[in-house]
Write a structure and sequence with these properties.
Blueprint (H helix, E strand, L loop, with lengths): L1 H27 L5 H24 L7 H8 L5 H29 L2 H18 L8 H12 L4 H24 L6 H26 L5 H12 L1 H18 L11 E3 L4 H24 L10 H27 L3 H22 L7 H20 L16 E3 L1
Antiparallel strand pairs: 1-2
Helix pairs in contact: 2-3, 2-7, 3-7, 4-5, 4-6, 4-7, 5-6, 8-9, 8-10, 8-11, 8-12, 9-11, 10-11, 11-14, 12-13, 12-14, 13-14
Amino acid sequence: MSRTGKTAGGLLARPADVKAWWGSLASDMRFPGRYQLVQSLKAAAAAALAWALTGWWLAAPMALMAPWAAVALVQGTVYRSLRSAVELLAMMASGTLLAAGAAAVTGDTMSAMLIALPLTVLLGNWAPVGEQGLYAPTTALFVLAYGSYSLPAVGHRLLETAVGAVVGIAVNAIVLPPVHSLHVKTLACALPRDCARLLRELSEGVVKEYDEEQAGRWHRAAGELPGALSELRAARGWASESFRFNPGHRMRRSTPSPSDTWDVLWAQVGNRLLTLTLTLWETASERRALPRPPGRSLEDLSLVLAAAGKVCAADQTLMEQGPDDECLERRAGHLDEARRALADAMGHLHGPGTDTRASLGSLLACCQALLDDLMPGADGSALPAGRARTGRT
């Protein structure tokens, strides 16, 4: 009976487990964006065109090589397509020649595979061609599996690969050539937005009885900001690369892109928030000897954080919409408000309790440095100079 109950319980639990797994999978899935959709359609069109040229027009005996190369060379940038074409052609040519040579020496497909595959896999891993190294052994497998490794057949393989490479590069360069500067601006706007959100959470939380768990969440959120900066720097690299050898970027709609000093500013702000949240976590932790500041001082600290959050939100608006006198005035007002609240909070440092002054002083020092970083005219501040560079989408 017990065994039956366990079995029944297990059977009843399976649909719930499947439902939970499916719900988790569905939440992680995202619909493809415009860039993914366009590049996928371009790759499919390049493959069809390469097949038509080699299979129908040239009547090639192994036309698969052309669409295969064409799909592989519809890359994220035109420059990357050109660079990958050289690597791919080298790997495919090596795989074809090694497979044909091994088959000519042995006269047996299995023996030729035992010779060619270790060599092509080693070549693909050793050569500085990145992911294109996979094409050396796979090309050798196709050549040996089809059994077409005579001298004319090898010539056809190389011709088909070259045709596919030319088609892939041409389609990627002519049909909506990819440009990635819009992603740079999106990530640049996310930095002040995330900082503003965290500052709002801190402002609301410090006036309550925040605990160690909540302070730990704040610290982890601040620790994610450097990752966003790394993503922005990587996007800048993609944006710069996407303009190289790109014949169509001048015909695309232009949008402003932030200067590199924007990254410097938000790296500094992120470091301030990381230190600030670490101090709050230590004051909430029972394992630390740093006491929590008194309630009145935390109320003034909350006002400082709230006003600083509004400054960051204004920076987000300025980055998204461009320089605006009204928004700049609001930003200046929020910064003045934060400085007044900071001055009021500084008055609590003269109260009793050495340990309390130490924790409060650490928090206020971080706030002072944060407001200094957000001063107008600082590197990367949300002024028109911070948006001087122009990119394209």
